[in-house]
What does this fold into?
Amino acid sequence: MTEHEKHEEHDQLHEQQQAEHEEQREDGAGNVSTGTKEAGETADAAAIPELVIISGMSGAGRSTAAKCLEDLGWFVVDNLPPALIPTMVELGARSQGNVARIAVVVDVRGRQFFDALRESLAALDAQQVTRRIVFLESSDEALVRRFESVRRPHPLQGDGRITDGIAAERDLLRELRGDADLVIDTSSLNVHELRAKMDAQFAGDEEPELRATVMSFGFKYGLPVDADLVVDMRFLPNPHWVPELRPFTGLNEEVSAYVFNQPGAKEFLDRYTELLQMIAAGYRREGKRYVTIAVGCTGGKHRSVATSEKLAARLAAEGVETVVVHRDMGRE
It folds into this structure.
């Protein structure tokens, strides 16, 4: 073979490789190609992995949440640039089922970064990728305490204070928080409690239609920031003023009986359960998979605890997978 023929053969091989590479790239509409035109240029929907995007405030526990999913068998990528999320989903779709669930931790540190994330979410929706957003929230006081304990600056504080960085990040994340499927407030949670929450939401082979967290709390300790619905049980008499009931909590049968023997208590539970049935049906239609129902009383010890237990039992009977959390019980 002459040198001229060798060059021609090399050029033909290069052109063929380039053509194959172009087939595997995203087309102009943002569709993900499988690399084979005969397959219709898009990955088989059955092979597209589930996707969870973990975001939230710096110091709120993103790494812990990601580690929990990793322990549950998810393929976890930390700090992946948002523009590469569709590519990661494409690679998972090509794994022939070996990568069925992907979790991506995104760290939003600027407007340009957030715009890239928004574009990626739009591309995923266009491809009908099943994706969920988990947002880790925490109070300013808790975040300041955590940053000071490790003696590290906030990523966005620059030459300012930690609180300046927190305020800037909270402003950047406001829209993403509103789009989140699950918001977890870690202000009063330790590492083990956060893992328990993640396990409750993601453990198991089958994904339920709707998962609910029913949380009792005390108004004097503040509203739960991750609540979707808030119920106020202070319209019922307080067992705190009954000396023989005061030491116990709403988990006690006598306290529960006292609460639900009050006028209007049982009627409220019946009607609110009916209301939740209507709300749950709407959540399912809108694709919302998680709901946090906060049930409050003065101290979060008696009325809210007893009501949370009853309400959770009603929801479970309706087929809603339910977790009960008593946030403030035992704080007194």
Q: What stands out?
A: The beta strands are 50-56, 75-78, 101-105, 131-137, 182-185, 211-218, 229-232, 290-297, 321-326.
